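User: Show me a protein chain along with its predicted structure.
Assistant: Here is one chain, sequence first, then structure tokens.
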Amino acid sequence: MKIVQNDKKAPIEWKMREYDSNIARSLAYELEIPLPIASVCAARGINTAEDVEDFCRLEMKKLHNPWLLPDIIAVVDRIVHAIDNNEKIFVHGDYDVDGVTATAVVVTAMRKFGADINFHVPHRIYDGYDIKQSSVDRALDAGASLMLSVDCGILAFETAEYAKSKGIDLIITDHHTPHQDGSVPDCIGVVNPNRHDSTYPFSGLAGVGIAFKVMMAVASKRGYPIKELTEDLLEYVALGTVADVAPMIDENRSLVALGCQRLTNSTKAGVRELLRVAGVKDVDTMSIGFSIGPRINAVGRLADSYTALELMLETSERRAKFLAEQLNSANSRRQAQQEQATQEALELIPDDIENHSILLIAAKGWHPGLVGLIAGKIAEQYGKPTLVCTIKDDGTIRGSARSAEGFNIIEAIKSPGCNELFTKSGGHPFAAGFDFPEENLDKLRERLNDFAKKKTNGKGIRGVRTIHIDAKIQPGEINEVFYQSLSKLAPFGSENPEPVFMTKNMKIIKTSTVGSEGKHLKLRLRGSKDTDPWVDAIAWRKGGESDVYCEDAVVDVVFKLSKNEWQGRIALSLTIEDLKIS
């Protein structure tokens, strides 16, 4: 284990993943795959040749039966009854990628079923998250007798009661964590595999995945061709699942892999234009996470997410082009505003940061839609859970939290002493959102840090970024055969992260900086022998270290392997996670 110091970031720890080397050697022999790839499998608990082959087999038949979901029978019966009787159905989504694509799934399917449908995705600032009484009123104004939520609603107890009092039936589809006591809102049905009483075999579906499963069950009930509907919806499922960082295991792997194939060859005008402005040709989880998803999210952060939903559903090429440009423009504005706000937030980091386990930063003027992104940047840079907040003119504070590895930030927020300081809070172990009055700012900072100290037995969170290395490889192993074996483990994501490899004693034979103001470092590397083949590499945000990593320097490199196309040339390249002089 090594600690590599960096002036501007938390110390970086290189840590090899543990695995049984005997299992790895056995897999390499039986499957005739490179030993480092077999080591990746062994470290992830894929221990037999049959397990590996099953893991890599991605097909629709591996999806679980939607009729196993809780309340699915009652929900499908009510939806089918509404369709058959021409009732108005109102769909309420969410403003992030998962919520937008989940809404697109339901709207697309319902239109095919001939339903009389109206839909809405909330405005991040004006409406906020979740279904509320105002959401029910909107459904009533639309003349709906049935309201369906996607990607929200699991804690909307008061809204469910209000809907019942107004005579509108409510169906909730959601994937977020239910109330601690396991209770769910009183309505027609709550479809959520994370319910305490759920017997569904997989709890990791995103909101869009659950919406997809419900529509599959409705199609089955109505005798609609399942294959036709599936092919039309998988693109949305892949986008929402990846963007929401759902675990890339179990049926999510098949949904995303097949969905990415559909995306690459999309027949949807809106999707094609989105790929065009994002500069994406072959869609995978990386391009969704870093190019496509951020553009869908950006318009919801800075403007209205309905624009993104409209693009998803658009059939006119001309209109799709206009909407895609709006998303692209919003993303450019988001990047500029985020960069400025992040720099301002960094200036507010306390000088005695070593005495802070949790960072709580607040200022006026930051866009509420950007504070989560800023928190993520700072949490990564300092290796500590971070809450970033914007102070509103009325004296209230709205913020987002992002955690560090191994620390449950929502547990801290909900802990006694902290929970009562918030007027609203919710989220996941690694991300949360909240509101609280400005006068509670200092008290909250103190109590959160007290909680962290108790949780770590007084040690506090020291702020270290750990890079988990899957396997060591030799420079000569970086070739097409190796890459093809690696790609069979895709799609990568949460709980199946893209493998990280380490190679020692690589010689730098060419170096340059790229990006605005030489922000990034581009290298050409080869093994210690002059006859070893060379490979290009990119080290993001390390352009300022070009004097250290200069030509003829010999380095140890931790990286991810990818294939790039540039000016018609396709070649392997390394994305450097970290490097040091050998």
